[in-house]
Structure formats: structure tokens, C-alpha cells
């Protein structure tokens, strides 16, 4: 491995993971890609797809730093709890253990102005600089256009999705498109994204769409795997150009 690979391997070890790197020498497939497995169980943690390893070095580092941030927050919470315990002059009477609360039901609905702050936070996790005020204005514009942003709520907004209907001349029916979706990190893998997609598909079908497309940045490999599992296929290239003011 190179020095950069050694750095990733050390970071992985500090987070309880082992780094895997493709051994294929020829370009193509998963050449130069990485994955992470649990150091104790060997279970795949991140960067694995049906055709091999999928993550870049940058994605591995970002994932590991995210795990580090979670660990720091947990440690901080534990320290605060410890200080509160030491400050108690008289031991509290032991109370009967309360039953664990049941997980709240997942609710899918159209976004409301009061959701703007939570939505801005979700977009920030994707790297988009969107303020609460920005989000509120854009939510109103989408709703006015008949394509309201959808949110997934469970004790708070934990996911959102935008969609669009495009009338076209080269197909007999309009084309529906999922233009953006994000689920909070702590809620991923729990069916939230799949529920949002299913709700959107039902709306697009009811609107007469004969094809549903998804736009997803090339670097979001986890998202690609997610959509493929839902039956979507990679069919074309997407080209983009920034329009200067």
C-alpha cells in the first residue's frame, strides 16, 4: 500500500475496522476502490457492491471521520452524565425501570414551512449550503408548482425527497424524475429511503408518467447501490453545465 493507503488503514483500525483494497491490476471493475469490514466480525461495513468494492479513498476517509464524530459525541454525553451523577448529594431512590418506548411510526407527508430548518440540515449533510430561509422559499415554490417536497417523519424529519414531471415529445407519456433524496445518517438502513421512493413512484404513476428516472451524483456510490436494489438501472450519462450570471 502507498502512504495514503497506510493512513486510511490506520484510521480504519482506530475506528474498529479493517481496510480492503481491490487487488485487480487492470483498470475497470473495482480497480483502485476500497471497502471497510468490521475488525472483529469481518462483516461488510461500507464500500461493497454487487460487482466488488465501490468506495474511493476520499469516501472512505469521510466515512471514517463521520464515525469518529459520532464517537466523540457519545463520549461527551457520557462525561456530562458522569458529572451530574457526582453532583448529587443524596443518592436518589431507585425507581422501577420504565419500559423502553416503542419506535414512533414513520409518517410520509408533504413538507410544511416549519420543516425548513430540518431540511436545510439534511441538505448540509450532502454538502449543500442551504439556509433555513432558502429552504422555506424553495419549499413554497415547489408546492406552488404542484410538486411539493416530501418528508419522512419519525419523532422529527429524518428524510426528504424532491421530484419533477417532465412532458417530452419523444415519448408517449411524461417522464417522472427523483431529483434529490437524503435520509439522516442515523436512520439509514431502516427502510426510510425505500418508503419515500415508493410514495413518489405512486404519485408519478398517478400523474401518468411512463418512465421514472433518478439523478444521482457520480461520487454517491452508496446511493447508486440503493437505487439498483430498488430495480433502477443505469441507462445513460448526465451532462451538466453551470450557467454564469
Summary?
By secondary structure, the chain is an alpha+beta fold. 37% of the residues lie in helices and 20% in strands.
SSE blueprint and pairings:
Elements: H1 3-14, E1 17-21, E2 34-38, E3 44-46, E4 48-49, E5 52-53, H2 57-87, E6 107-110, H3 116-125, H4 132-144, E7 150-153, E8 157-166, E9 175-183, H5 192-206, E10 211-214, H6 221-229
Parallel strand pairs: 9-10
Antiparallel strand pairs: 1-2, 2-3, 4-5, 6-7, 7-8, 8-9
Helix pairs in contact: 1-2, 3-4
Helix-strand topology string? HEEEEEHEHHEEEHEH
Could you give the distance between the termini?
Answer: 45 Å
Q: What oligomeric state do the depicted chains represent?
A: single chain
Estimated structural class: alpha+beta
Please bin the fraction of helical residues.
25-40%
Mean pLDDT: 84
**Strand order of the main beta sheet, please?**
6-7-8-9-10
> Which band does the percent of strand residues land in?
15-25%
Q: Major β-sheet, in short?
A: 5 strands, mixed
* Continuous helix count: 6
Rg over CA atoms, rounded to whole Å, is 22 Å
Amino acid at each position: 500500500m502507498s502512504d495514503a493507503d497506510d493512513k486510511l488503514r490506520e484510521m480504519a483500525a482506530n475506528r474498529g475496522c479493517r481496510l480492503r483494497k481491490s487487488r485487480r491490476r487492470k483498470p475497470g471493475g473495482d480497480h483502485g476502490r476500497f471497502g471497510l469490514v468490521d475488525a472483529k466480525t469481518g462483516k461488510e461495513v461500507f464500500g461493497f457492491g454487487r460487482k466488488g468494492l465501490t468506495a474511493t479513498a476520499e469516501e472512505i476517509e469521510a466515512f471514517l471521520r463521520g464515525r469518529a464524530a459520532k464517537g466523540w459525541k457519545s463520549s461527551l454525553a457520557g462525561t456530562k452524565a458522569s458529572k451530574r451523577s457526582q453532583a448529587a448529594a443524596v443518592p436518589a431512590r431507585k425507581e422501577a425501570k420504565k419500559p423502553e418506548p416503542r419506535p414512533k411510526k414513520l409518517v410520509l407527508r408533504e413538507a410544511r414551512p416549519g420543516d425548513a430548518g430540518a431540511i436545510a440540515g439534511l441538505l448540509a449533510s450532502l454538502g449543500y449550503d442551504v439556509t433555513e430561509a432558502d429552504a422555506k422559499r424553495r419549499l413554497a415554490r415547489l408546492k406552488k408548482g404542484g410538486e411539493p417536497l416530501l418528508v419522512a417523519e419519525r419523532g422529527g424529519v429524518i428524510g426528504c425527497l424532491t421530484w419533477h414531471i417532465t412532458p417530452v415529445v419523444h415519448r408517449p407519456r411524461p417522464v417522472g424524475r427523483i431529483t434529490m433524496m437524503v435520509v439522516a445518517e442515523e436512520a439509514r438502513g431502516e427502510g426510510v429511503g425505500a418508503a419515500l421512493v415508493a410514495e413518489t413512484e405512486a404519485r408519478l404513476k398517478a400523474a401518468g408518467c411512463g418512465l421514472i428516472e433518478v439523478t444521482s451524483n457520480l461520487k454517491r456510490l452508496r446511493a447508486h447501490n440503493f437505487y439498483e436494489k430498488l430495480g433502477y438501472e443505469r441507462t445513460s450519462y448526465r451532462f451538466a453545465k453551470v450557467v454564469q450570471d
